[in-house]
Amino acid sequence: MGSNRNNFPKGFGLDMAPFRDFMKRMDTVFNESSKKLNTYFNLKPFWVDVHETESEVLVEAELPGYKRDQIELEIIGNQLRITVSDSVVHEEKNDKTNYYNKEQSFQKMERLVTLPFTISEKDTTASLKDGILKISIPKQNSSRKFLGIDEDTQH
User: Fold this and answer.
1) Residue 72: how many CA atoms within 13 Å on its side-chain side?
2) HEC per residue, the chain
3) Where are the chain's structural domains?
4) What class does CATH assign to 46-138?
């Protein structure tokens, strides 16, 4: 692969490859650090994917290990809030040594999906299967119009 020096105007004899390599390494450092922090603090982030079809918007959230009673869905106008809660209680008790220890942790995460139309609570459906939460939001905004763009042929 050749140098990118020819992509710059005259007087810019810069080779940006070292800078790009440095930025890639910085991205790797931050990505790896983030993964280690998630493990260290026992965080289980969840990912959300949004797909749009002609008639609906499909929201899918990956929630492995969570049960239905740990998930809350809330519609706020044109926003969908997905909240996941997790609590763990660990108790140790030893009558011989008169030792008792109790540890509790609570974690709450949420994602907010904003759409360009008001979400109908009545027509929106959700299901949870094999750790995948699927939410179907029908499009009901018939006032949406798309404008055509003319091509400027004068140039």
Assistant:
1) 9
2) CCCCHHHCCCCCCCCCHHHHHHHHHHHHHHHHHHHHHHHHCCCCCCCEEEEECCCEEEEEEECCCCCHHHEEEEEECCEEEEEEEEEEEEEEEECCCCEEEEEEEEEEEEEEEECCCCCCCCCCEEEEECCEEEEEEECCCCCCCCCCCCCCCCC
3) 14-43, 46-138
4) mainly beta
Starting at the edge strand found earlier in the chain, the sheet holding 99-114 runs 71-76, 79-94, 99-114
Number of C-beta neighbours around residue 75 at 10 A? 14
The tens digit of pLDDT for each residue in 93-148 reads 888 888 888 888 888 989 999 998 899 999 999 999 999 999 999 987 556 667 78
